[in-house]
Amino acid sequence: MAEQVRIHEVGPRDGLQNEKAVIPVADKVALIDLLSASGLRDIEVGSFVSPKWVPQMADTDRVLAAMTPVEGVRYAVLVPNMRGWEGFVAARVPGVMYEVAVFISASEGFSQSNLNCSIAESVERLTPVVRAAEDAGVPVRGYVSCVTDCPFAGPVAPAAVARATEMLLAVAPMQVSLGDTIGKGTSETVARMLEAVLDVAPATGLAGHFHDTGGQALANVETALEMGLRDFDSAVGGLGGCPYAPGAPGNVATEAVLERVHALGFETGVDGDVIAKAATLARGMR
């Protein structure tokens, strides 16, 4: 049997959070429900963050209430602090399989600009969320941003990414998604970064999260595959970007990742025809 690659769809959250126009809840739910029918097992659907800073995610509670969950699909939400955790607890629907995502940066410059704190302080802030999730039996996934380049501090040393990964794993066991936030990574810089990170975490515990700013995302996916990674984040229709990272216009498109990994002989269990329909729907939200 062919090896499996697991796709983590981030379009409804990481994709839509950067859109300027207000997107109706019904449109978000329509996208999530279509993605749920595609064979995807992981879909990031929103975040519980300050509506002042990320207004597109202010209605995540309404999205959770309106969407139609599919058995076997895990729905992820970004929860940066305990206020966000309380919002998630109030909004979650019994019987639905959820996952909580927490994040830090590998760059002190990005951490200060984005979170107004050091990397170490950001870990302290998310630790209570992880403990609460553990107590509630909710799985946790970690994100490390700026794994090759930072929009404020330039190139990021691979050792810094390894340290950030270690800091997350010291809080609790979790999968760590490694994000090339502004899409400047190349096969060479991604390989050097992964060499360092693989010294502190197994490939099975890592995921690649590539933006396609420089047109290198698919090449970076291939590099990560060669180094043993089998989990990748992507956004249907190439939606997204980071509102706090200048020059990060979009994630690698789910349909492009599917085409590439299938061509390389991997299986995903995802229906490309359904994803194509979702991509058309997603592009219409821009």
Task: Describe the protein in words.
With 286 residues, the protein is α/β, with parallel strands linked by helices. It has helices spanning 11-15, 25-36, 60-66, 82-91, 108-115, 119-136, 158-171, 187-197, 217-226, 254-263, 272-283; strands at 6-9, 42-47, 74-78, 98-105, 140-145, 149-150, 154-155, 175-180, 206-210, 231-234. It has a single domain, classed as Aldolase class I (TIM Barrel, Alpha-Beta Barrel). Strands 1-2-3-4-5-8-9-10 form an eight-stranded parallel β-barrel, surrounded by seven helices. The protein has a two-stranded antiparallel ribbon with strand order 6-7. Mean pLDDT is 94; it is low at 243-248.
Strand content: 15-25%
Kindly state the number of beta strands.
Answer: 10
- Run of helices and strands: EHHEHEHEHHEEEHEHEHEHH
Number of domains: 1
- Structural class, by secondary structure, is alpha/beta
Radius of gyration: 17 Å
Biggest sheet strand order reads: 1-2-3-4-5-8-9-10
CATH topology type: TIM Barrel
Q: Determine the N-to-C terminus distance.
A: 39 Å
Q: Uncertain spans, ≥5 residues at pLDDT below 50?
A: 243-248
Helix content: 40-55%
Average residue-wise pLDDT:
94
CATH superfamily: Aldolase class I
The top level CATH class name: Alpha Beta
Q: Indicate the overall shape.
A: globular
- CATH-defined architecture: Alpha-Beta Barrel
Give a quick account of the main beta sheet: strands, pairing sense, barrel closure. Answer: 8 strands, parallel, barrel
Count of DSSP helices? 11
